[in-house]
Design goal:
It contains two helices and five strands. It is α+β, with helices and mostly antiparallel strands and 88 residues long. The protein has one domain. It has a five-stranded antiparallel beta sheet with strand order 1-2-3-4-5, covered by helices on one side. The N and C termini lie far apart (30 Å).
Length: 88
């Protein structure tokens, strides 16, 4: 199990195993064989999280609509987590 840096640490300071651990803690499941893509399901919405080269992309799906946002790896893990869990 990877140790997570402090919540206020920018995403770009997280090693990949720590990011994967964080996503698992959120309840996301890694897509196989697309290891950079994760699915997160909540009662009100679902989201696809993709670890891109320069940013993290989230696509929320709710009631037939899709909302997409991209988050810089310069943002803190706490800010990105709050944005993801806030939903679309």
């Amino acid at each position: 199990m990877a140790m997570l840096p402090a919540d206020g640490t920018p995403i770009y300071h997280h090693p990949l195993p720590a990011l994967e651990h964080w996503l698992r803690q959120l309840g996301a499941r890694q897509q196989v064989p697309r290891g950079a893509v994760w699915d997160l399901h909540r009662p009100e919405w679902s989201a696809r999280i993709e670890l891109l080269v320069e940013e993290l992309e989230v696509r929320w799906h709710q009631e037939g609509r899709e909302t997409q946002r991209r988050f810089s790896y310069g943002l803190s893990r706490a800010d990105v987590e709050a944005a993801i869990l806030a939903g679309p």
